[in-house]
Amino acid sequence: MNNPLPFRIRVAVPVPIHEYFDYEVSAQQYADIQAGMRVTVPFGRQTCVAIVIEKVALDVPPSTQFKLKKIIQILDEQPLIDPHILQLLTWSAQYYMYPLGEVIQSALPTRLRQGHHYDCVTTQWQLTPLAHEENTLKQLKRSEKQRLAVEYIQTHPHGVLETELNLHGISTATLKALEKKQLVQQNEVQIDFSRKPVGLAEKQLTANTEQLQALEQIVPTLQNYAGYLLDGITGSGKTEVYLQVMWQVLKQNKQVLVLVPEIGLTPQTIARFRARFDCHIALLHSGLNDTKRLHAWQQAQTGQAGIILGTRSALYTPIPDLGLIILDEEHDLSFKQQEGFRYHARDVALYRGYLAKCPVILGSATPSIDSFALAKQGKLKHIMLNQRAGHARMPKMQILDLKIAPKQHGLSLILIEKIKATLQQGQQVLVFLNRRGYAPVLMCESCAWQANCPRCDAHFTLHTQPYQHLHCHHCGLIQTLPKQCPACQHPTLKPIGLGTVKIEEGLKELFPEHDVLRVDKDSTRHVGSLEKIYAQIHAEKPLILLGTQMLAKGHHFPHVSLVAILDIDAGLLSVDFRAPERTAQLITQVAGRAGRGDYHGEVILQTLRPEHPILHTLLEHGYRTFAEQTLKERETACLPPYRYSILIRSDAKNEQHNLAFLSQNAKLLTDNAQQSVDVWGPIPAPMQRKAGKYHAHMLLLASSRVQLHHYVKHWWQYVRATAPSDIRLSIDVDPQEFG
DNA sequence: AGCACGCCGACT
DNA sequence: GTCGGCGTGCTC
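^ Those are the sequences you sent over. The predicted structure of the assembly is below.
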């Protein structure tokens, strides 16, 4: 009597559980199903969308522990997730010790994860017959945007894709407005699966000797995996190298994935690619709505898009003919996800390139110490670009000791003189201060009481715009200003320290005849305001540009010849072992904004710690020497990248509970792992109390990655399972920040 | 994560 | 007497 075993599939369910789940399917379903398809399954008391990981081999007996349920239905005819991506996702889940179901979840566009059908339709727009009548277009005189939109659509009588219009800076809102006026109409069209041959929109620029050498190294390896660190000083033309390698790849009808930092995906970036290549670009960033994200994803998956341009989350986009991955500004922290599934797009990108057998180029003017180390080990090929394009020379840097310098409005008099001289020469000045708001502290003049956030271990920041208020930058709490000191009733509360708004006030007073443009999260909150500011900067007119790190990222300011860095002391004093690296990158990046045109730029650095060794290394020898030294120091101190690390974070309402729980489990780990894993801590987090919770963490270090991951994986499973419910835990493999 | 079951305070 | 607070336990 043979009682055949049931047909089963193994699926990942979008819940925070590390295990896979098995379901019964019919013989027909078993034949039809492939890994990467979506199925709906009964799960507990709900039904949910799950991803098929594998078919269970027919001779494996089912576990008697569970009663096997049947799936409800198969949602896809073809695998939604191709084998490469599925492997990339399972590897990521393993490596970052995060449940696969949730990892897949975060990689899928919302609509697909909700179980919607995979329709390959997208929206296109065309003019209505009404729009062709002569006088109807005259009513658009008052709207520049709508007129431009109509003019563009006019050149495509058969309709033009909404995504393409968006890439041209024509927003969906504008199109909707025109639709209301019955001048344009939308219709749904099938995504065109065929990729058209890619053309060059603009003539290729010629490469200089260094760029040519870089190309000669990269281009012959296009058919295979290779990791490159393109280490080029600001202005050395990394982008030109990217573009020329991209052309070689696109020409072969392959696709290119370009990853940029969160803040780097601006209209200018897109325009640069559009200007060079005549091909479809799929844009993937956090600001997209569900439908647009799905469309971009499908354009990548069907092969319609030649270039896939996006931020961190675009890494898991399916790209059937992937021929090249570029990750620009590879040192940027936004490539590491800072919550939940804490993956590092840089590291996963290297693995993706390996799976897809294509090169991966990591580019930066200030490479991360980790990438430097990989280059030293030969795991990345180090390509250096040292010449600035055109006539530009590196700016000269100078340190100003704030302890002895006489100052006014937080600016030393020497700096004020230099600003004056620069403006008089008709050039622009960039003032960098990494602190928004008016002042970081509000203090009572009489008793030294300070306005602190009741929920965090932090000062309130005083804001004066759009109205006076206290704002906690850590938990977001907003309060009104007390009329007098709550402790001693003294009427005068004094702002202490400098924020961008206060400096703006000072600069306007000192240079009333010049424009002062402030660029920070507060001044650029409204859409389009940043574009307006950039337009002013590109007009060749003397002005002062003032802002936070937003200014340090990517943008070119051709008319800036003086850069003032007001306060980076916090970065010099931090206990985080990566703080020097980040500070050095920030200084170098900000300094790189100067002297890009034909002027010889100058950089002034105001500090209370003029003797700090980081500053001297940077000034006298530059970033690369700093990186070399830092590497040596890390080696001596047995820190990453010479050891591998995992950070365990926990928070709870009760401080003692939290620390006791971590200590107890730390002992468990050291008992088990013997000498191979080193535990630092647990210690209270740098900001212990945040939003009313107590935060603590401990760092696990080992010289062998395999051993570290082995021990921690088992330990973590156990800790998670046994943790009391008042303690929230998270794991961070290869942590970058200790906040 | 959901969603249930389950045991203790203020209400028609 | 109930309605409902959210503590803990499970999901093939």
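Chain A has a mean pLDDT of 88. Residues 14-17, 43-46, 48, 102 of chain A lie near DNA strand B (CB under 10 Å from a C1').

Shout if you want it in another format.
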